[in-house]
Amino acid sequence: MPYLQVKTAATIAVKLGAGRIYSIVGVAAGTGFAFQINDGPDTAGNVRTIIGQSAAIPVVAGAQYINQNQPMTFRDGCQVVTSGTPGELGIQYD
Fold first, then answer.
1. How far, in Å, CA of 38 to CA of 17, rounded?
2. CA 17-49-5 angle, 5° bins
3. What are the residues whose beta carbons fall under 8 Å from the beta carbon of 54, sequence distance 6 or more?
4. Sign, Cα dihedral of 28, 33, 39, 40
5. What is the pTM of this model?
6. pLDDT digits (tens, 9 = 90+) for 35-69
7. CA distance 18 to 39
8. 36, 54 contact by CB (below 8 A)
9. Centroid of chain to Cα 55
């Protein structure tokens, strides 16, 4: 199962097409490091927010945001938006 380490403040296309997010874990907090997860973009370039608004969920070291027993699905793709001084966020998906 793929695993992505996010260590920058950026918009990252994790995967195109349908899939599931099995876990999101805060590895290191950074300073004001926050994230948002979007479904998309679709064929028209639109995204739908599935976690957070405006990259506003703070990354807390050791926090688990999604449990592997209840994965979160996405239809068009998985996009991660991060802001602040980077820490580290780990995302496990398929």
1. 12
2. 65
3. 36
4. negative
5. 0.92
6. 999 999 999 999 999 999 888 899 999 999 988 88
7. 9
8. yes
9. 10
